[in-house]
Amino acid sequence: MSEKLIIKGLKPTKGEVTISGAKNSVLKLMAASLLTKDTCIIYNVPDLSDVEIMLEVLRELGAKTKYDKNLKKIEIDSNNIVNCTASKEYVSKMRASFCVLGSLVGRLKEAKVALPGGCKIGERRVNFHIKGLEALGCSCTIEDGYVVAKAKNLTGSTICFDIPSVGATENVMMASVLADGITIIQNAAQEPEIVDLANFLNSMGANIQGAGTNQIIITGVKQNDLKGCEYTTLPDRIEAGTYMSIIVASKGSGVIKNVFPNHLTLFTGKLLEMGAKIKLIDPNTMLVSNDRRLKPMNFITQPYPGFPTDLQALAMALLCCAEGISVVTESLYENRFMHVSELWKMGANIIVNKKHAIIKGVDCLVGTSVTSTDLRAGAALVTAAVAARGETEISALSHIDRGYENFVQKLIGLNIDVQRINDDVDRTEKTGEANARF
């Protein structure tokens, strides 16, 4: 089925939106549940295709799962994990599922996990993951598209990453929970999702300190020390940044609920620099508004707490109509400018020079047919569409489905004129009626 979003632009937002649980956190919590033989219950789970894929990975390994979408709750019973192989069928679809490598090595002392897939935003090597596991005592090889890791025993060690790697930090954290002695991860990733994973593991009985800083210390515990737990996933900061961008692009206003503002400090500062207005109503609710043409600004994507690479495309969509010239530098992924060619179709004036994009703002973008090339590119095209004159058709929605729960309903709740259709459905039929799953 070929589905599209149809968005009519230049309609100011109003209303409110509630942020879902963080995709980039809940997937890792699901992987971490493999470390204990008891049942773990995770709350605030978003209804996303990536969550479904991770459930398939866990079931393939032998876990029993129950997913209540109405309660946004997943129960995972990993008592009978007998399979240490995570196949290409699922792992190749989503990079986050690669994090079962660390939990399998920790629990079973062996793992065979397919090399990861996901959005084609650039080379995302696994050498840091392998380096970390080898420091703990694993032998690691790559065979026929799989990472094969084996160890007679895991022993704590000091591991220093050349650059902060979220996935490698997570895999080493999970593997070292059951290692003998103390593991120290230096130059560790500091993302809020890392803190969420550490808190989840500590709730199970692990001993992890320093998460959220550049040095994480894990004191190994025994298998019997790890128990089941109940845990609530933190809100999705990237989803929050997405709706902030859409509201600002529309020259409207909107209330964003269930957000942790301190996870978006730099991004919020950049929006304020551009001329948007942001006000905290309470500690987890913000009012975002804009009533004028934005000012230009420059930024460089960096690991947290720097400017998030996951919000780079959305910020660029905003800058397409800013009054002046802006420069965006993507320092993390070499293929994360794929949305530029689609923004060109809408009339954007962007010049790309390797890792730099120079954006000269135009008066107004123009709606046309565009294609989502990856998850965040799809969200950026929605941002551009609400600021464009006329109608925009966005195709390849499978990318968007990976990361945004109830996307159309939430857009409608913000007064966006949007429909989700397929080629066999009359465009006059509203998405909420045509697609019950949204």
Question: What's this, in brief?
Answer:
The protein is α/β, with parallel strands linked by helices.
Keywords:
single chain, 438 residues, alpha/beta, UDP-n-acetylglucosamine1-carboxyvinyl-transferase, Chain, 4-stranded mixed beta sheet
Backbone structural class: alpha/beta
Tell me how many strands there are.
26
What is the approximate shape?
A: elongated
Rg for CA atoms: 22 Å
Question: Which parts are unreliable, with pLDDT below 50 for 5 consecutive residues or more?
Answer: 118-124, 430-438
Quaternary: single chain
Helicity range: 25-40%
For the record, the CATH architecture of the largest domain stands as Alpha-beta prism
CATH class of the largest domain: Alpha Beta
Number of helices: 15
Measured distance between first and last alpha carbons = 15 Å
Into which percentage range does the β-strand content fall? Answer: 25-35%
How many separate structural domains? 2
Q: Quick one: biggest sheet?
A: 4 strands, mixed
Going by CATH, what is the homologous superfamily of the largest domain?
Enolpyruvate transferase domain
Strand order of the largest sheet: 23-25-1-26
Determine the mean pLDDT.
93
CATH topology of the largest domain: UDP-n-acetylglucosamine1-carboxyvinyl-transferase, Chain
